[in-house]
Structure formats: structure tokens, C-alpha cells
Amino acid sequence: MAWLLMILCFLCGNVFLLSLAASDDFLQCLSAAIPSDLVYQQSSSSFTSVLQSSVQNPKYITNTTVRPLCIVAASDVSHVQAAVRCGRASGVRLRIRSGGHDYEGLSYRSVQPEVFAVLDLSRIRGVNVRPGDATAWVDAGATLGELYYAIGTVNPGFAFPGGACSTVGISGFLSGGGIGLTMRKYGIGADNVIDARIVNVDGNLIDSVAAADQDLFWAIRGGGGESFGVVVAWRLRLSRVEPTVTVVNVERSLDQGAAALVAKWETLILNPFVPDLTIRVVVQERHALFQTLFLGRCSRLLRTMRAYFPELGMAPADCREMTWLNAMAFISLGSADAPAKAMLNRTNNLGNYVKNKSDYVRRAIGQAGWQSIFQDHLSRYGPGLMIMEPHGGVVGGVPDFVTPYPHRQGVLYNIQYVVFWWGEANGTAAAEATGWLGGLYGFMGQFVSSNPREAFANYRDLEIGENEVGGDGLTTYESGRVWGEKYFMGNFQRLATVKGRVDPGDYFRNEQSIPPLRQG
Question: What is the DSSP string of 21-65?
Fold first, then answer.
């Protein structure tokens, strides 16, 4: 036993020395290519503040989290190229961060001990919008709010089908597929990407991925862009939107028939329901909030509701008419009086801890099922909620293989489960919150998709599986399938094949990155 301990100590010591050498080589390489004030080492007084600048969940900034060797705050594409080349040469991996909303924090932390650096793209965030042009170039570090504001002020009359939260990074949103309140009319975000620029594993810039590599272009539009390289800019298709749209929030309690109303809402999604209308439902405790965005005026919305959903009792006084830009500010910021410019605020949320999970529903749950969900789960824990995004419309009419996002034909809606707690990251409150979430998620298994139980890549969840590294030093395909087929279903193997070609050495990886699958 003594000789075994000696060998283990010797091996660990050598690994430590190798890590130190790699770290020194990486930092020295960076110093020759990137200004020193853009590289924040752990010894820097600004390291912690820069690391936390876009963190949305304080759970992942504790001392128990594996922290990066340094943060490269790139302000130019050449800095991205240098970071990749230095990382490859020295054996230091990169975690790529834009908005910081990734639910498991994998863009700035590592679950297992390893030497890595964060490549922060938040300074590369230009948005190029021209009046009357139905396309736009947006840099990878921009947020949805910055994109919305640029479109709405420079090019009114156009819109982009993004999500409901303005601080989400555009690159993370698109690389996971990107669902939102206007996807029934315009498709998901990834459907509206018409080109991209990417720095590949060799540190070379591919100026037009659509022209250079159609398989890679397919993969980054929903397959997890960080697995294949560093996307530095996206070219987007914009869509015409009515000058006036209508936003309505209607809340109903369980005593007011919330369970029956949610059940009726389920039946409308795949019917010939007007794609101009999206009703997002948030359920919490004993209440259901019906968040409505209608691409038109209130009068036409009310006629539509009387025809399809009179039970909700929507009235003229419920309507708020505004521009698309102001509607996105209202939805994101929660106030009808919120100025659109407020969406430029790149705030983060360090006030509470949070855990998320996801599901897809392909068969209506029905009133009895919703009655049980409310009474047995939601009403028993106030800080827990479910957010349901309807599919159907244009997004449901696209074949599942057109982009890596496969949750299309036959999908009624996506569920995001969210639970909050305060106090300590892993204390009693955390156990209570996550225990409640696990109970609800287990109960919902009877109502949601199965074989596989589908999940949304943008709501990353390590509880459904993590990568394992094989003896060859590469992520194993079999371990990736465990979680990958839940996110990507039949598209997972194609994603792994693309990965095996463009990054055969598996440099760009994390706990849920696409593993390389080599052909032949």
C-alpha cells in the first residue's frame, strides 16, 4: 500500500507541475498578443468583479467552484484568435462566455478540476442595423436587449424572434436554438440565422460559415456553438412587424378556474390558431398568468379571443397597445412604463439561487391533470413556478432535422421549471427547493414526452447527464448520448460527426459539449 501511495503522490505532483507549466506558457503567449489590461489573472484586484460581471446564479461563484486561470476580456476578433491559438499550444482549454445566462454556469466554471480560462466576449457586441434592410449583423457578445433596441430605433417596422429576457447573450440564445414569444409567426431564433463568422480550432477566422461549411453552419444553429469553435458574429434575418402590437397580462386563480383555463389553452396550440397570437402561461402557487403578445391591434385580438378562447374573459381594458420595441421592454422588464433604453442595462442577478429543468409536452395534460399539479405541487411551495412556451405555427411546420433544434412537429409547448431560494447555496433552503423541484419533475413524467424525455439545450441541466472522458483523452460518444439525445434527439449523431471533423482533438469541450464522432 505504501508504494501505491508513493506512486499516486508522484503522479499527482507531476500533473500539478504540468499544469503550472501549461499555465505559464499560456499566460506568456497571451502577453505577446493581447494587451495586458484585457487579461485578468486570479491575482488581479479586478478578477472577481470581472468573473461575476454576468453571472446570473450566485451558486456558481463560491469557493467550491473550479475557477478559471484567467479571464480574457477580448475586445477584437484577433484577441479571440490569439486566445484559441495560445490555448491549443499550451493545453489550456477555453470556456466561452457572452451573456452568462447558461443555467449550469459552464461558460465560466468547471465541475471537474482542470486548467482553463474564460474567453469573455461581452466587449465584442456591435449591432449593425441599417434602415429598411431586412438583415442585421450582430456580434457574439451583444445581448438580446441591445439587438432589440438597435432594430427598434434604427429600423422600426422590423423585428427579430428573440426571447423574453433582454440580458440573455445573443450567441448563447442562438447556439441553443432560441425560443421566444414570436416564434409561432417567425420561427425560432436559429431559423433566422443566415450566416455567421467563427474562429475555428486552429485560431483561423471563417468569415462566412454558410459559404464555407454547410454542415458546420447547420450545427452552430442550435447544436451548442461552443462545441465547434468561437462564433464571433451572426447575420440575422429580420421580419416585418405591424406598427402597433398588443400586450395583455391576465391572471386567474385556481378558484377562478385556472386549471380549466390552462387545459383549454393546451387544445388551441395545434389548431388553426392565428400565428400572430402567442399566449405564454406562467403558473405559480394557485395562479396562472396568461401573458399575451399579439402582432396587431387590440380590436383584432379581442375578436380572435372571442372566437377561440372566450373562457379567458379578455376585455378591452386589459390591452396595452405599443410598438414591438416597447412590447419587448414591457415583457422583459415587467413594466409598461419601462423605457426601451433600459434593455441596454447588462445587469446580472446575484440576489437569489435558482435551479431550472425543462420538458416538452406533446399530448394535452387536461383539466384533471392540471388540478393535481396545482393542488399537490404548486400550491405547496411559493418560490416554484412553471413557464410554458407554446409551439405550433411556423416553428411546428419545419421538419425536425432542418436545424439541430428537434422539438417541432407535434410539440404543444415547452415547460421550464424554476425554483428559487435564499440563504446558502447548499443549505437547508436549497435542499427544500431542489427537493420540491425533483418531486414536481418526477410527477410530470406521466404527462410529458418520453423515450427520450426531451429537454431544451438552452435550459442546460447537468442532472440529465454529463460527459465522460475516455482513455484516448476525448469525450466519449456513449456518455454524450445520455444527455445529448434528450436535447437533440435524432440530430445528435450528426452533431457528433460534425464535431469529429472540425474539432477531432476535442479542444472545445465542457461537461455537456458535443463529443467527437469520427467516421471510418
Answer: HHHHHHHHHHHTTS-GGGEEETTSTTHHHHHHTT---GGGGSTTS
* 267 class by beta-carbon count within 10 Å (0-12 exposed, 13-18 middle, 19+ buried): middle
Taken in order of first residue, the domains within the chain and their CATH numbers are: 14-120 (3.30.43.10), 127-240 (3.30.465.10), 245-321+352-458 (3.40.462.20)
Tens digit of each residue's pLDDT (9 = 90 or more) over 395-438: 999 999 999 999 999 999 999 999 999 888 888 999 999 999 99
Q: How far, in Å, CA of 373 to CA of 388, rounded?
A: 14
| Among the listed residues 459, 467, 447, 450, the one whose alpha carbon sits nearest the alpha carbon of residue 512 | 467
Strand partners, 414: 360, 389
What is the pLDDT averaged over residues 321-333? 96
Triad 393, 394, 398: Cα angle to 5°: 120
**Strand-pair partners of 418:** 356, 385
This prediction has a pTM of 0.94
**pLDDT digits 0-9 by tens, 87-122:** 999 999 999 999 888 999 999 999 988 999 999 999
Cα–Cα distance between 209 and 204 in angstroms, integer? Answer: 12
CB 291 within 8 A of CB 283: no
3-state secondary structure at position 259: helix
- CB contact at 8 A, 166 and 142: no
Helix (H, G, I), strand (E, B) or coil at 509: coil
214 Cβ neighbours under 8 A, 6+ residues apart: none
Q: What confidence tens digit (pLDDT) does each residue in 45-100 have?
A: 999 999 999 888 888 887 677 889 999 999 999 999 999 999 999 999 999 999 88
For residues 190 and 403, is the Cβ–Cβ distance under 8 A? yes
